[in-house]
Amino acid sequence: MAIARDEQAIQSADAATDPGAAQLAPAAAFYALYPIGIVAFGVLPAVAAQDWVRAATMSALFGFLAYVTYELTNLATLKGWSAQIAMMDIAWGAALSGVAGAAGYWAVRTWTDR
User: How distant, in Å, are the alpha carbons of 45, 47, 56 from that of 113?
Assistant: First the structure.
């Protein structure tokens, strides 16, 4: 019994330090903080300018820069990281951020006096 528990402890420790294992806390932190960037750099300046296209464009630029940083870092440091997948992910990040910025602009304009 004690040997089995020790073996489980070793396997748990290995899983916790495995570089390929999912790390949920950093992912949760990113997705909690990322919308703050979209609001600060895309939505709020666009609300001040009363221009939803600016919200979409600046939010897409923010998304592009965030995702290109992540993807190019992975291409430089991780063996086997696909350039094709990286380019698709960058495009996805920029597009989704642009839509989120436009939605944020709409929400602010709809639910406030701005």
Answer: 16, 11, 20
d(CA 75, CA 35) in angstroms, rounded, equals 25
- Burial class from Cβ neighbours inside 10 Å (0-12, 13-18, 19+) for residue 96 reads middle
The one-character DSSP state at 41 is I
- Give the C-alpha distances (Å, rounded to integers) separating 56 from 41, 67, 78, 86: 10, 16, 32, 22
DSSP 42: I
Could you read off the pLDDT tens digit of each residue along the chain, which spans 114 residues? 556 555 665 555 555 566 667 889 998 999 999 999 999 999 999 999 999 999 999 999 999 999 999 999 999 999 999 999 999 999 999 999 999 999 999 999 999 976
Structure token pair of residue 6: 């020790």
Contact 97, 75 (CB under 8 A): no
For residues 89, 90, 96 and 99, what is the CA-based torsion angle, rounded to 10 degrees? -160
**Rounded to two decimals, what is the model's pTM?**
0.78
